[in-house]
Every structure is written in C-alpha cells, then in structure tokens.
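step=encode ok
step=design start
structure_in=
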C-alpha cells in the first residue's frame, strides 16, 4: 500500500475532511499502526506520497500495510482519547507504547467503604476508590506500604477474614487498629485513610502539620499516651521528609520526564515533585519507538503514561518539544480537571534536573539492555528455528497453546497459555471451565474452548468504535496455535477455526508420547531433533499449558470434594449451612428434623421444605 492504486485513490477521495483516528492493517488483518489526524483525508494521503517514508521504521511499516480504516470524531481531543484507547487495545507494533503496562501495580483505597481495606490491584475501575500509581516496581510500592503501616496502621486483610470480627496478629503488632472488632470508630478510621492518601500524594508536610497539631492538643488535654503516639508518628514522618530532596522554592506539583536511547531501545524516567520536593521516580521501557524523532517519542510516551496514571500534575517538564503540544495539554487538562502546562526548561535548576534524570535513564537502559540481550540471545534462535521448521513466513510473536485436563469428564478444564517473543505472558493465561460437554470427550472439550476463545476475538475485531476490550488476551490475535495432542486433536481444532473464520492462523499439534509435531494436510509428523531449539521451545510451551491445566483441574476436584448437598439448595448460604451443621451434626439428622425445628433457626418455610426434598 505504499503506492496508491486506483482503488486506494477512490477510497481516499471518500475519506472525510474531519478529525478522527485511522488504523493500518497487514495482510493477516492485524492492526499494525493507529494514528490521529486533524483532517483524515489529508493525513492518509501523505502515506501514499512518493518519498514520504523518511525513516527505516516508517518505510518498514508502509511495506506491511495492506488496508486501512478510520473512525470520525467530533474534535482533536476526542480523537486523542480514541487513539490512546485503540493503542492499548491493539498494541500495534509500530506505535510507541509502554512495555508490559498491564502488569503495573496500583495502590487502592476504597474510601466509599465503612472500613476501607488498603490493597494492591492491577486494574483501575470507576468505583469511587482512590488509586495511586502505576508503579513499575512492585517491591518499591510494597516497601512504602510497609513503612506507612508502621506510622499509620490500617487494615489490609480480606473481606472474609474481616467478617470474622476477630482481631488478628496485625492488631497485636500495631499494624492495624482493629476495625473488625470496632476498636476504632468509622470516622477515626476514615480520617486515618485520608492521612494515608495525603502521604501517597506526596503531601507529607501537610500530614506532619496535622500530626503536630494532634500531639499538642493531646498533651494540653493531659492525654500523654496519645501524645507520645503522635510524636513517634511525627518523627517517622519527618525522617521520610528529610530524605526528600527540595527542588524548588515554591510548592508546585510537577513531573519531570527524561529519556535515554540506544539504537532502537528507549528508556524513559519520570520524577515526581510534590509540594516542591522530589517524592519518587519511576522508569519505563518503550516498545515501537525505533528511530522516532523526539517530538513523536515524547508525545507517544505522554499518551500512554498519562492515559493510565491516577494523578496528573499541574505541569510536566520535558527535555524537548512534543508533537501537537496544545492538543496534548488540552487532553491532560481534561483528565486532570484543571490546566496542565507542558514546559521545556532551557536553563537553570529544572534543566539541570532533567539532565540528571537523563543520566539515570541511561544507567537504567544499560541494565535493561543487559537483561533484554540475554533474553533475546536465548529466544531469537528458538523462534527462528521454529519458523523454519514449520515453514512460517516469519518468527511468531504471539504463540497460544491449548490443553484439556479431566478425569472421566469430571472437573474438566481447558487451559490457554501465551508466549510472546519466546517468553511466558502470564497475565494473558486463561482457564476455561468446560460447560457444554457432559462426558469424557477431549475432542469436543477442545472445540468448546477454541470456540469460546475465538468468538471473543471475533467480537473484539468487530467492535465498531474500537474501544478498549474487556480482556486484552482474548482481543489479541495469535501468530501460531499449538494443541497438546495428536492428529485427532488437530483435526478437531481446525474444524472449529474454519467455522469461525480463523483457519488462516498456523495451527499445529504436539503429541506427548513420541514428542511428534503434526501439521495440517500432512500425513506424517514433522521430524525434528529432540534437542533442537525450535522443538525445545514447543515442548516448553506445551508443558506449561499442561501444568496450567492440571493445576486448575486439581483445584476444581478439591472444590468438588469439599462440596455438600446443602450447596445445591437455593436459599442455603454459607452462614445457614454452618448453622445447620452445628445444630444437627449431620445431613441425615437435618433430613429427619421436623419442619418447625428448621424454621426456628430462622430458615423460611419454603426453603426448609426445599431443603428436605433435595438432601
């Protein structure tokens, strides 16, 4: 599509002169690039202008483009929002994006609850809770929370433990104020959570001021025990504040962004300044940056990073100009609910800090490349050997493998494991409980799993507005499918894939007995040395799918073994189940109990009648 054909020219004429987002797809239908345009027609025409590909990255992309589509929007900011969502949804290889951004950790404070449980999460929801993040270093966040609990104890236990209404060890070692037993009032506990939020926002000076006032007030009231507790918290807070570096004489909130580049690898470092003090920093490796110029690189990073960040500062200091600064600033202001300034310091203290931050990014990039080079040196030969053995057009980026685990059809589950670039993508693993197949039929169970998985992919690809998918794993198209089994399993899998319209995805099966690899339309197995790199990778993926399936199959069996006939009675929940067993001692005694004895326990008569009928 680098050269405009007559059909393409006619299609371009029909593209509207309005803001919007465009998508480029390759011959397999995969989205390889998402872009935004003030005028869609003009922007799309430029891609077919001779000599437009000014960089190797852009030239490589245009060689792969086979088709395009677009979505109109009302304005540029709306187009920017849609562009951000589509990049997160499709993760196109030629867009700048954060590496493994779905693995980032957040701290969640559900302030709408009576006694909020402070805990970690990897998904931000519109549920009224406060979120802080994303954090690329889970250990750093956990260490922060550990230190914070020493100063401001709060609840971290699960809801099931909390509902037991008994204090645990955390209370006795002063890491929790004991809300489960009512040792602290809801108002006091929520005031504690607000203090935690202040600390996480980097406003430790506000918190120390409040603690000092509480300490003085308690001492004036001769409440020396609480005064001493506030004093200890104040000293701990001031020790943390002393470690924070004063950057400016003002009390401004801003982020500092700097980056380092080595070849096609880019690493961005972000430092957080709150109330004029450096309160933390975080690093992010980028994918798809390649030889992108600085304005495009910075725009891509801001789009991806602040698209998922929970806090937008008043200002962002950058090392250089960014593409479309007015549109990006308007989008940030819309997310923040107030104005946001994008500044490029040329001299002075802020410029010196950006240069220091760039040096930090350079050191982080070195460490990142050492690990990446080590991984690539191991996985690239495997993927290349696999592509050659299976006659694939190129090494597969995303490989999905499926396995079924059951005993005579009982507790049956199907597993889907995902490897990207030869490494496990654990957050994309999925398990399927077999719902439609009553007996031991591995072929039919495999077909059910594949049908459910690829129907989800079909729904994601047909989504008209291209909003973010509910599940990134199901909305990602694999480059290679592996089936744990022999020719029978392979035939069953191909039948389903052809029905749904995904027969073009290369699909193979690996039989465990003789470690034979079977291909469609081929009578015999593909002969591979057992110690060859490609075979080693296939076996590793197959073994991981088997491990994942058998683990969840055992969990299903354990749940089934612990189940009771009482579980099948509508109206009998865990509390009534425990009450019945404590009162009568056995199912036989419950079955023989008079109806009035059951109703005296608070069980409605209709439920009691149903109970005696079903057990």
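sequence_out=
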């Amino acid at each position: 599509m680098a050269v405009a054909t007559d059909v393409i020219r006619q299609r371009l004429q029909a593209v509207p002169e309005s803001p919007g987002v465009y998508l480029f797809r390759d011959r397999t239908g995969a989205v390889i690039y998402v872009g935004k345009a003030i005028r869609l027609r003009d922007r799309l025409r430029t891609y077919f202008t001779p000599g437009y590909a000014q960089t190797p990255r852009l030239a490589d992309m245009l060689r792969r483009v086979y088709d395009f589509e677009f979505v109109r929007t009302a304005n540029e900011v709306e187009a920017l929002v849609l562009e951000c969502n589509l990049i997160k949804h499709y993760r196109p290889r030629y867009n700048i994006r954060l590496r493994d951004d779905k693995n980032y950790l957040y701290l969640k404070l559900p302030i709408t609850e009576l006694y909020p449980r402070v805990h970690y999460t990897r998904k931000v929801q519109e549920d009224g809770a406060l979120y802080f993040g994303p954090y690329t270093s889970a250990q750093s966040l956990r260490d922060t929370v550990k230190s914070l609990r020493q100063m401001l104890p709060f609840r971290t236990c699960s809801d099931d433990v909390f509902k037991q209404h008994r204090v645990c060890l955390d209370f006795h070692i002063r890491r929790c104020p004991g809300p489960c037993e009512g040792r602290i009032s809801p108002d006091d506990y929520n005031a504690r959570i607000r203090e935690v939020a202040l600390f996480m926002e980097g406003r430790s000076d506000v918190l120390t001021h409040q603690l000092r006032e509480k300490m003085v007030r308690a001492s004036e009231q001769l409440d020396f025990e609480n005064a001493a507790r506030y004093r200890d918290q104040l000293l701990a807070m001031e020790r943390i504040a002393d470690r924070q570096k004063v950057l400016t004489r003002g009390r401004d909130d801003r982020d500092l962004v700097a980056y380092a580049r080595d070849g096609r690898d880019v690493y961005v470092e972000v430092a957080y300044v709150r109330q004029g003090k450096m309160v933390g920093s975080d690093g992010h490796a980028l994918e798809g940056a390649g030889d992108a110029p600085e304005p495009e690189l910075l725009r891509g990073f801001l789009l991806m990073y602040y698209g998922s960040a929970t806090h937008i500062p008043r200002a962002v200091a950058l090392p250089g100009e960014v593409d479309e600064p007015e549109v990006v600033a308007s989008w940030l202001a819309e997310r923040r609910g107030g104005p946001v300034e994008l500044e490029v310091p040329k001299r002075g203290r802020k410029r010196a800090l950006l240069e220091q931050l760039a040096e930090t990014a350079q050191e982080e990039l070195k460490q990142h490349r050492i690990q990446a080079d080590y991984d690539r040196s191991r996985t690239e030969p495997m993927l290349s050997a696999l592509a050659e053995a299976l006659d694939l057009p190129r090494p597969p980026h995303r490989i999905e493998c499926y396995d079924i685990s059951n005993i005579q059809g009982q507790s049956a589950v199907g597993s889907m494991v995902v490897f990207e670039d030869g490494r496990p993508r654990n957050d994309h693993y999925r398990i399927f409980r077999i719902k439609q197949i009553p007996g031991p039929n591995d072929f039919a169970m495999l077909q059910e799993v594949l049908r459910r998985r690829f129907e989800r992919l079909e729904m994601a690809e047909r989504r008209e507005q291209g909003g973010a998918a509910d599940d990134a794993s199901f909305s990602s198209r694999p480059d290679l499918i592996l089936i744990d089994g022999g020719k029978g399993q392979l035939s069953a899998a191909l039948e389903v894939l052809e029905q749904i319209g995904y027969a073009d995805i290369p699909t193979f099966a690996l039989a465990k007995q003789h470690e034979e690899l079977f291909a469609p339309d081929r009578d015999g197995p593909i002969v591979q040395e057992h110690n060859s790199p490609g075979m080693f990778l296939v076996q590793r993926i197959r073994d991981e799918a088997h491990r994942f399936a058998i683990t969840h199959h055992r969990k299903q069996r354990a749940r089934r073994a612990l189940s009771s006939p009482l579980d099948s009675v509508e109206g009998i929940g865990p509390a009534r189940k425990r009450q019945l067993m404590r009162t009568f001692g056995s199912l036989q005694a419950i079955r023989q109990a008079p109806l009035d004895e059951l109703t005296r326990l608070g069980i409605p008569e209709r439920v009691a009648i149903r109970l005696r009928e079903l057990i």
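step=design ok
step=annotate ok -> Residues 102-202 form one domain.
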